[in-house]
């Protein structure tokens, strides 16, 4: 019984020592809570705008409490606007194909760099990392891509320039180093397993979490891609979603900025320009797939970043 | 006899070795080809920085264009520094980076420590989930978020100003608020990411150290001061130096999309990366653009090398190369 009391007292003392006290915890919760609100409120706001009636927006602007709710933006997006479907397809196509290819290339490039018995290991490590330090810059890369490699107004222009990322090579190699024992490769070689067989049948299953991390990072990059479209794409049928969103804003900005110059005719057109809510709905439609994939993202990317940050 | 056996064995061993090297090289091939075509080949194009680049209309291939363009030596660089714009953008690039490296580190470390102190784990997890979210969005989407508040016609703030009978602020035309807006946008998108990084490092600290400290009567604040922060120190220093190494580079999307590419805002929003893009695409001056990116590359190169060698001195394991 006595020992029970002692235990109780000790536990109490320990918990007091290990907690920061109620006032401090309240302050922490307020600070973090406010920042978290700042992080998600803009998205919630845009969702609300996308469900607001166009009349309501004309009347009181974007508001957290619209006068009238409406589904018209989504109805319009899904029924009468072919461009949005097309762009949705483009974004999915680019993301899936680009991710598959870039992950394959990344695994194939990082594996030999992880093999200590590979003769040209040092050279190819440098060959890859040097491009993180120095490059031709925008103009030469643009001209080479467009004029020599034919990356011009086609799907390849949206996929090829982002296929390879030296940072991912670092992460992948580190994953191999931390999860694959060298003896395993030696044992496989003694058993007569070919290099490709060893890589895909033995190594890849072990390194699955690392590969998932790279895949998700690449998928995110492809899904959020607008820069390549801005450089190389002219045809509207090829626009990815992000670029479609960007262009629809630019068109309106252009008209608004020049409205006074172009006269009252245009000013009227600008005023009647459709679908404030439609553009916001488009933004929501871009975020929705990310939100769905978010739990995976969080799990794998956190583990990947932690590994990646250990080295580089 | 034994001699011949050795010589019979070693060629086959050498052959196997060579075969292994060739197979491994074949694995590297796709990536290596990509690097040659999209990274190394363009490096030769740097000569454009020393040219008045023109299109050779008879046969406008890239090689022909370069061969037939006029060489102007360092003229492009002279022009670059002749205008006040260039000093302005260099100031912006370095200034924003310096401010954000400091702010980003301090806030992320503080948030990570706060998260680790919260007693209810699911609350901490929820905070982490919410603050990591913006990291996954593109700057295009982020610019819409901002516009929902700042748009002069429909934006929430503009509407509130109208209601209060105040004059509506033309956010996309006046420079003054943009250093703050850009800073908020940067922190909004990136703090979650670095907080998660630091939090992972805190979680990795051996809990027996805290137990020992609390038995010795150390308060939680003392534990943070003498256990948590010293443990984070190497990581803070390395991430800090690495970002100093990239002080001349900036996030193009942030400076291009968030101010909506608005001309009047260039004094506060133009950075090296946006200048390189605009000199090429908007003003159609490939020579100036290449000159600016070459300058950026060279300065950046030495910054990274310096940063890396400092990291090597502190902690060799953490250096990049």
Give a summary of the structure in a few sentences.
The complex is a heterodimer of chains A (312) and B (321). Chain A is mainly α and 312 residues long.
What does this molecule look like?
The complex is a heterodimer of chains A (312) and B (321). With 312 residues, chain A is mostly helical. Chain A has 2 domains: 2-74, no CATH class; 81-273, MetI-like (MetI-like fold), CATH 1.10.3720. Chain A contains 16 helices and no strands. Chain A has helices at residues 2-18, 22-50, 54-60, 72-79, 82-114, 121-133, 138-148, 155-159, 166-179, 182-190, 195-206, 208-223, 227-232, 241-262, 264-272, 276-310. In chain A, helix 5 (82-114) packs antiparallel against helix 12 (208-223) and helix 12 packs antiparallel against helix 16. Chain A is globular and about 80 Å long. Chain A starts with a helix and ends with a helix. The model of chain A has no long low-confidence stretch (mean pLDDT 85). By secondary structure, chain B is an all-alpha fold. Chain B has 2 domains: 2-71, no CATH class; 83-318, MetI-like (MetI-like fold), CATH 1.10.3720. In chain B, 73% of the residues lie in helices and 1% in strands. Chain B has helices spanning 2-44, 62-68, 75-82, 84-117, 121-132, 139-150, 156-163, 178-203, 207-215, 220-245, 252-257, 266-269, 272-281, 286-314, and strands at residues 51-52, 70-71. Chain B is flat. At the A-B interface, helix 1, helix 2, helix 5, helix 6 and helix 7 of A face helix 1, helix 4, helix 5, helix 6 and helix 7 of B.
């Amino acid at each position: 019984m006595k020992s029970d009391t002692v235990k109780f007292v000790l536990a109490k003392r320990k918990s007091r020592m290990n907690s920061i006290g109620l006032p401090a915890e309240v302050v922490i919760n307020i600070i973090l809570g406010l920042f978290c609100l700042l992080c998600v409120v803009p998205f919630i706001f845009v969702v609300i705008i996308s469900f607001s009636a166009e009349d309501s927006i004309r009347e009181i602007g974007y508001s957290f409490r619209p006068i009238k709710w409406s589904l018209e933006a989504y109805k319009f997006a899904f029924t009468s606007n072919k461009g949005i479907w097309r762009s949705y397809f483009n974004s999915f196509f680019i993301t899936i194909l680009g991710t598959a290819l870039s992950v394959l290339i990344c695994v194939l490039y990082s594996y030999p760099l992880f093999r200590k018995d590979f003769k040209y290991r040092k050279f190819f490590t440098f060959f890859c990392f040097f491009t993180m330090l120095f490059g031709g810059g925008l103009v030469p890369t643009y001209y080479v891509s467009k004029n020599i490699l034919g990356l011009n107004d086609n799907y390849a222009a949206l996929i090829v320039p982002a296929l390879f990322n030296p940072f991912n090579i670092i992460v992948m190699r580190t994953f191999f180093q931390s999860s694959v024992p060298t003896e395993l490769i030696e044992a496989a070689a003694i058993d007569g397993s070919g290099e490709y067989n060893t890589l895909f049948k033995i190594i890849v299953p072990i390194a699955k979490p690392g590969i998932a991390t790279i895949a998700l990072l690449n998928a995110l990059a492809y899904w959020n891609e607008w820069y390549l479209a801005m450089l190389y794409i002219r045809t509207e049928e090829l626009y990815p979603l992000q670029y479609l969103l960007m262009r629809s804003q630019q068109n309106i900005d252009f008209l608004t900025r020049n409205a006074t110059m172009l006269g009252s005719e245009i000013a009227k057109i600008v005023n009647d320009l459709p679908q404030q809510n439609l553009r916001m709905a488009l933004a929501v439609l871009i975020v929705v797939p990310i939100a769905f994939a978010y739990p995976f993202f969080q799990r794998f990317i956190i583990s990947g970043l932690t590994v990646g940050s250990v080295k580089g | 006899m034994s001699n011949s056996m050795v010589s019979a064995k070693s060629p086959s061993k050498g052959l196997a070795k060579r075969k292994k090297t060739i197979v491994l090289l074949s694995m590297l091939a796709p990536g290596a080809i990509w690097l040659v075509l999209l990274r190394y080949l363009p490096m030769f194009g740097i000569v454009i920085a020393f040219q008045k680049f023109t299109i050779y209309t008879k046969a406008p291939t890239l090689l022909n264009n370069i061969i037939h363009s006029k060489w102007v030596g360092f003229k492009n660089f002279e022009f670059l520094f002749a205008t006040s714009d260039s000093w302005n953008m260099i100031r912006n690039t370095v200034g924003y980076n310096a401010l954000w490296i400091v702010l980003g580190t301090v806030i992320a470390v503080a948030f990570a420590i706060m998260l680790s102190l919260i007693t209810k784990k699911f609350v901490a997890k929820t905070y982490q989930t919410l603050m990591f979210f913006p990291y996954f969005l593109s700057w295009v989407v982020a610019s819409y978020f901002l516009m929902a508040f700042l748009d002069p016609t429909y934006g929430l703030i503009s509407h509130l100003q109208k209601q209060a009978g105040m004059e509506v602020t033309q956010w996309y035309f006046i420079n003054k608020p943009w250093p703050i807006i850009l800073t908020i946008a940067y922190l909004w998108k990136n703090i979650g990411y670095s907080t998660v990084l630091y939090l992972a490092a805190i979680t990795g600290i051996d809990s027996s150290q805290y137990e020992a400290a609390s038995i010795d009567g150390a308060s939680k604040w003392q534990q943070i001061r003498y256990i948590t922060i010293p443990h984070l120190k190497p990581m803070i220093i390395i991430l800090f130096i690495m970002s100093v190494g990239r002080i001349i580079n900036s996030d193009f999307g942030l400076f291009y999309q968030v101010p909506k590419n608005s001309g009047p805002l260039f004094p506060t929003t133009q950075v090296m990366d946006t200048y390189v893009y605009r000199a090429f695409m908007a003003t159609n001056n490939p020579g100036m653009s290449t000159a600016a990116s070459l300058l950026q590359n060279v300065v950046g190169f030495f910054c990274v090398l310096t940063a890396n060698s400092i990291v090597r001195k502190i902690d060799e394991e953490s250096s990049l190369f």
